[in-house]
Amino acid sequence: MEKLIITAAVTGSLPTKKKTPYVPITPAEIIEAGVRCEQAGAAVIHVHARNPEDESPATEFRLFEEIYRGLRERTKLVVQISTGGRAGMAYEQRSERLTLAPEMASLTTGSVNFADSVYANSPQLIERLARDMKIHGIKPEMEIFDVSMIRSAVELAERGLAEPPLHFDFVMGLKGAIPATIENLVHLKNSIPPGATWTVAGVGAAQLVMNTHAILMGGHVRIGLEDNIYYRKGELAPNERFVERMAGLAAEFGREVATPEEARRIMHLKRSG
Ligand code: ZN
């Protein structure tokens, strides 16, 4: 089986210091989390920025730039910048960060109803983000919240807006997204094109369960406080401990963990180091 790529989604948009003291908020904290996750076995870091004053999701370019430069300086991690946006964020606010030309960026290929808002990704927005990624040589990670979004991602490839083999991330167990069941995971895996790679991000308690299945099924895993803050019921933990757990499980199951350089090869990233 291919080596296991561990992606660390260290911050996201939602967890606050009040909910868990371990969530990194400032650029310095996010960079430090990246360093520790790399030491623990992560190959990819999924990056959001926060406004240090109030911890809200940030769109400011200088914050993304600071985080990106710091991670490039201090780690060999593949940096994957999120183009996700909360309700009301315009294309410009979600795309400017792509001019940093990170190796990867996330691209959600459809809209979702979150608990109390719409995560709106119109066909026009998706196409513009895909074009930007193509121009900057960025590999999209297709964020799949439901099966239909796979088809939309494949269509982008058919139209020349994304280069195969595609890479998918199945976001499972979020309210409004596909429920986190083994049957659904198998169906998602069987619905992607041959040669494509996939990872799974289970939300909340589904994180450990879905990741364990992914390790056994030949997929890859995403962990981190963006998706789940509890190591086990009632116990909070820093990002690197979740990475350590994945590396430990992979070892138990006889699967080796990929270095950042190996992850670049597995996902067919063009650049190295
Ligand atoms: Zn994210």
Map the helices and strands.
Layout: E1 6-9, H1 27-40, E2 44-47, H2 61-74, E3 78-81, H3 91-95, E4 104-108, E5 112-113, E6 118-119, H4 123-135, E7 139-144, H5 148-158, E8 167-172, H6 182-191, E9 197-202, H7 206-217, E10 220-223, E11 230-232, E12 235-236, H8 239-252, H9 260-266
Parallel strand pairs: 1-2, 1-10, 2-3, 3-4, 4-7, 7-8, 8-9, 9-10
Antiparallel strand pairs: 5-6, 11-12
Helix pairs in contact: 1-2, 1-8
General description of the model:
- The protein is of the alpha/beta class and 273 residues long.
- The protein is built from 9 helices and 12 strands.
- The strands form 3 sheets. An 8-stranded parallel β-barrel has the order 1-2-3-4-7-8-9-10, surrounded by 8 helices.
- A hairpin with a 4-residue loop joins strand 5 (112-113) and strand 6.
- Helix 1 packs parallel to helix 2 and helix 1 packs parallel to helix 8.
- The radius of gyration is 17 Å and the shape is globular.
- The two termini are 24 Å apart.
- 49% of the residues are buried.
- The site of zinc ion (ZN) has 7 residues, from loops.
